[in-house]
Amino acid sequence: MSTTVEDKPKNIVAVPELKVSRRNFNELTSEKIKELEDKYLPLTCKGADDDAGYNLVHPAWQEMKKLRLSVEETRKALKQPALDYGRKVDAVAKQITAELKPIEDHLKSQYDVYQEEKKRIKAEKEAAERARVQEIVNKFAEVGSVVDPREVGLWSEEYVQQKFSEAEAAFLERQEAARIEKERQEAEAKRLAEERAAMEAEKAKLEEEKRAAQEEFQRQEAELAKAKEQAEAARKELEAIEQEKRDRIEADQNAVPESSEHVDAELAEVDDVVQEAAQSLPGSIVESEYVAVEEPIKAEYRDSKLKLLQWLDTLDSEEAPEVQAGLPSDVAMKLESMLAECVGEMRDMLARVL
Fold first, then answer.
1. Where a domain ends, among 90, 123, 156?
2. Which CB contacts under 8 angstroms, 24+ apart, belong to 348-353?
3. CA–CA separation, 5 vs 94, rounded Å?
4. Which of 9, 18, 46, 305 has its CA 20 to 30 A from that of 110?
5. Quick check: is 56 in a domain?
6. Other C-beta atoms lying within 10 Å of the C-beta of residue 238
7. Is residue 311 a part of any domain in this protein?
8. Which runs of consecutive H residues, i.e. helices, occur in 143-156?
9. Would you say the C-alpha torsion 245, 250, 253, 254 has a positive or negative sign?
10. Is this structure's pTM higher than 0.70?
11. Angle 331-337-339 (CA atoms, 0-180°, nearest 5)?
12. Where on the tree of life does the source sit, at the highest rank (predicted)?
């Protein structure tokens, strides 16, 4: 059973149309108001001393005020029946509405049950579809493929499987290529690391050899400097002995000749002094030295001179030892030059004193 409600209610008593005109308001027509304007608007009151103006303005104002108040009273009087009728209409309508409202509310609640259930079913279907689409999107993402969810929703199951098989094959191919590239990079990194380690080891070895060669060079240079100092000291000592012997011979020549035994004793004493001085020299410079200052004495030290010359020949012919890699190339040449210079100086000294 249903009740049809028409949009336009029936059985409504029409309210008689009330005609209202200016004549209802004390005949205040437009012409009448125009007359009042022409009559009163020119009136003025110039100040407290303008009694004549005041006497004209004041009664005119009182007249206009009465007219305005009469218009308001007429308005209320004309409107009151309509207001009373409206209140009665509102009261009846309010009572009827209150009686209809429970019926409407009941039917609305039943309507809402139906609509809410339809919404729930629709929402469940939409959620299930979103979950299905998201599952497909996630499945493709696992093989590194990006798909548009809006397109996936239109795909059939067969088409989804076909597209996934293609994406999975491409993914496996990329993985294999990445694995091969990774192994290549790791092998290259290992090779470079081994090369760096070998280079660092070689560098450390060369630095160690250079350090050892430098130490050896410094040691040999120190020994050579020490030998030169010792040779110089020996030379000075021999020269001093030579000078002493010369002074003594000169003194002997100026003195009265003595017996040959005395001269022999004197020479023996000098020889002892020379041998003692020679023994104090470094063994690396000379094995023994005999110093003579004049021709009569030189013959006595010929054997010693020969021994010293042989020793100098040995030093002069001795080859420099092999040195470690990394030693500056001019070190060996410098040492050989210094040794040759030292040997030459010792030869000159032997030539002078023996």
1. 123
2. 349/235, 349/238, 350/305, 350/308, 350/309, 350/312, 352/242, 353/238, 353/239, 353/242, 353/291, 353/292, 353/293
3. 19
4. 9
5. yes
6. 23
7. yes
8. 149-152
9. negative
10. no
11. 105
12. Bacteria
Structure tokens at 233: 């000291």
Last residue of a domain, one of 123, 145, 168: 123
Residue 55 forms part of a structural domain: yes
Q: How many domains are contained in the chain? A: 2
In a domain, 12, yes or no: no
3-state class of 27 per DSSP? coil
Return the sign of the alpha-carbon dihedral for residues 155, 158, 159, 160: positive
Per-residue tens of pLDDT for the chain, all 354 residues = 555 555 555 555 555 666 677 777 777 888 988 999 999 999 999 888 999 999 999 999 999 999 999 989 989 988 999 899 999 999 999 999 999 999 999 999 999 999 999 999 999 999 999 999 999 999 999 898 888 999 988 898 899 999 999 999 999 999 899 999 999 999 999 999 999 999 999 999 999 988 888 888 888 888 888 888 887 887 888 788 778 878 887 887 776 444 445 545 554 554 564 455 555 544 444 444 434 344 444 555 667 777 777 787 877 776 666 655 555 556 667 777 777 788 788 778 777 766
The span from the CA of 100 to the CA of 128, in Å, is 42
